[in-house]
Amino acid sequence: MNNPLVSPGLGTLVWMLVSFGILAFVLMKFGWPMVLKSLKERETAINDALHAADKAKEEMRQLQSHNEDLLKQAKLERDEMLRNARLTSEKIIEDARNRATAEAIRIVDNARENIESEKLKAMHDLKNQIANLSIEIAEKLLKSELSDKQKANELIDRELDKTKL
What is the pLDDT of residues 2-49, one digit of tens each? Predict the structure, then answer.
C-alpha cells in the first residue's frame, strides 16, 4: 500500500500545511470579511422584513378594527335614518288624515249651510207662490161674489161685523 494520498510523505505534508495556511490567510484576510458582511446584510434585511411584516400585521389589525367601528357606526346611522323616515312618514300620514278630516267636516258644514239656505229660499218662494195664488183666488172669488150687488153688500156687512173698530 504505497499510495501517496493515503500515506503522504513528510515533505508533501509540510507543503500541504503551508498551502493550507496561505489559503486560510488569504480567505481570512479578504474572503471572510465579505462573507461576514453579506451574512450581516442578509440578517439585517431579514430582521427588517420581519419588523415590516409585524408592523403591517398590526396596521391591518388596526384597520380591521377601525373598519368594524365604521361599519357599526354606519349601521347605527342607517337604523337612525330608517327610524326618522318611519316617524316622518307616520307624521305625514297623520297630518294628511287630519287635513282630510278637517276638509270633510268643512265640506259637510258648507253643504249643510247650502242646504239650509236653499231650504229657506225654497220656503220663501213657496210662501210667495202661495200668497200669489191666494190673491188670485181671492180676486176671482171677489169678482164672482161682487158681480151681484146684493151679494156684495151682504159680504161687506158681514166683514164689517167681524171687524171691530
Answer: 666 677 778 888 998 999 999 999 998 988 889 889 999 999 999 999
Using DSSP, state whether 9 is helix, strand or coil: coil
Cβ atoms of 145 and 151 within 8 Å: the answer is yes
Residue whose C-alpha cell is 367601528: 69
Between CA 12 and CA 18 the distance in angstroms is 10
The pTM is what? Answer: 0.41
The predicted-structure confidence for 109-133, as pLDDT tens digits, reads as follows: 999 999 999 999 999 999 998 888 8
Cell matching residue 84: 326618522
CB 146 within 8 A of CB 152: yes
CA 128, 131, 137, 142 dihedral sign is negative
Residue 47 CB-half CA count within 13 A: 6
Q: How far is the CA of 132 from the CAs of 123, 129, 138, 145, 157, in angstroms? A: 14, 5, 10, 19, 26
Number of other CB atoms surrounding residue 155 within 10 Å = 15
Residue 145: CB atoms within 10 Å? 13
